[in-house]
Design brief:
heterodimer; A: 218 residues; mainly alpha; MetI-like fold; 10 helices; 0% strand; elongated; B: 240 residues; 79% helix
């Protein structure tokens, strides 16, 4: 601890000599996040539509999602390790589960929020079920669905740092490395970059959300 | 070599049920830390959220604080705090309190803001003072949403307290962290089961508290709030 107290917050010479490693970690972090959110979204759309359409399925889907969501991330990764090892697959199964839960819920809540009058009007105008979904209901649910994507992305960026414990982790690897070696520089670089990445994505997706749903904001 | 059988044997081993690293001690550490952190966060967050909601000011701040809170990876915060205040219980405590405040502020704000204005008018018409309106009329009506925030925060705290094992504190996370370090996956799995069970217990316990604290006439709303709880945070934008 005495040593740690004298260790400077950041040593730029280390940063310079490890620039490749920092870049690789950042790229891996973005990859892990993008795959989790992308795959989660692809799975969430059919599940969300099913839960929204069929009342009986909804309770079950939302309860399972809620129960899984309470499992702490570190515990979920740990539960998977005996079966899938300290691997990329373990990390992604855990990450996709969490994005899935957030996205399914927001798809259902978003579609539920479409006013009944709008639905009636669409039917009155002769929309078929499929067209009504694509051209009336989904666009109106889009703000809530986009909010889900935004939350899922930001949450995943935080969770990816934890996957460092099971050997993945992107920027989490730098944090863990600094923690284990009691060396501040990688820890600060990893910590600051992961926070910056999360804030950047939050702000960026916030703008995107406004841009594609200009009718929704206050 | 049945893996789950080995996990069962781990739980059956009396050595794991006593001493400073036994399950009862670790459980107690985990529960105490979570309770104190959640309570302190509630003492800070609820007055702020309730008052802002009552006066209808500061909505952008009250709602966006949750977005910012979510954007901060708890692992990174925890590790950076260790650098500032040293290893052990204190960084874990600070990180957990910081984590629990945003959802409580947001939900107590939204709950108060969305109280039917006619109820407020009626209370005023009946001669209620400001403080009595807040405590006897608005707060009970906002209770399902306020409690949903406490519940979200509490469950998150229990989950994140697991990570505190990484910065030299105890709790049930120790089994996972030490197990990974020693490649003892039986211990890892057993720890994960314990943590998952505790998180589920916290969820159920806080759900019961939410139900009990909600006035009888509003109880049908508790169930809705449960589904909306994520969506209030989920909307990430002022609803109107």
């Amino acid at each position: 601890m005495l040593l740690a107290a004298q260790d400077p917050w950041i040593r730029w010479d280390w940063v310079q000599s490890h620039i490749q490693r920092i870049t690789d970690a950042t790229v891996q972090h973005i990859e892990l996040t993008a795959i989790a959110v992308g795959l989660g979204f692809l799975l969430a759309v059919p599940i969300g539509l099913f839960a929204w359409r069929y009342r009986k399925g909804r309770g079950a889907v939302l309860s399972v999602a809620g129960a899984l969501y309470t499992i702490p991330s570190l515990a979920l990764f740990a539960l998977l390790v005996p079966y899938t090892g300290l691997t990329f697959v373990t990390a992604e199964i855990g990450l996709v589960s969490y994005t899935l839960l957030i996205l399914v819920r927001n798809i259902v809540v978003g579609l539920d929020g479409v006013p009944a009058e709008v639905r009636d009007a669409a039917r009155g105008m002769g929309f078929r079920t499929g067209a009504q979904l694509l051209r009336v209901e989904l666009p109106l649910a889009l703000p809530v669905i986009m909010a889900g994507v935004r939350i899922a992305t930001v949450t995943t960026i935080g969770l990816v740092t934890i996957t460092a414990l099971i050997g993945e982790g992107g920027l989490g690897q730098l944090i863990l490395d600094g923690l284990v070696r009691d060396f501040r520089t990688p820890l600060v670089v990893g910590g600051v970059l992961s926070v910056a990445l999360a804030i950047l994505c939050d702000v960026g997706l916030g703008f995107l959300q406004r841009a594609i749903t200009p009718w929704s904001h206050a | 070599m049945n893996f789950l059988g080995e996990v069962a044997r781990w739980f059956a081993d009396p050595a794991h049920w006593q001493g400073a690293s036994g399950i009862p001690t670790r459980l107690e550490e985990h529960v105490l830390m979570s309770l104190i952190a959640t309570a302190v966060a509630a003492l800070v967050a609820l007055p702020i959220g309730l008052l802002l909601g009552h006066y209808g000011v500061g909505g952008a701040v009250a709602i966006n604080i949750s977005n910012i809170g979510r954007a901060l990876p708890s692992f990174a915060i925890l590790v950076l705090l260790v650098q500032l205040v040293g290893i052990g219980a204190i960084p874990a405590f600070i990180a957990l309190v910081a984590l629990a405040i945003p959802p409580m502020v947001t939900n107590s704000f939204v709950g108060m803001r969305d109280v039917d204005p006619e109820l407020r008018d009626a209370a005023r018409g009946l001669g209620f003072r400001e403080s009595r309106t807040l405590l006897r009329v608005e707060l009970p009506n906002a209770m399902p949403v306020v409690m949903a925030g406490i519940r979200t925060a509490g469950v998150q705290v229990v989950a994140t307290a697991t990570l505190a094992a990484l910065v030299g504190w105890g709790g049930l996370g120790r089994y996972i962290v030490d197990g990974i370090a020693n490649r003892n996956f039986v211990e890892v799995f057993a720890g994960a089961v314990l943590v998952a069970l505790l998180a589920a217990a916290a969820e159920i316990g806080l759900a019961l508290l939410q139900y009990v604290l909600t006035p009888a006439g509003l109880r049908s709303r508790v169930k809705q709030e449960r589904q909306a709880a994520v969506s209030i945070q989920a909307q990430a934008e002022p609803a109107r």
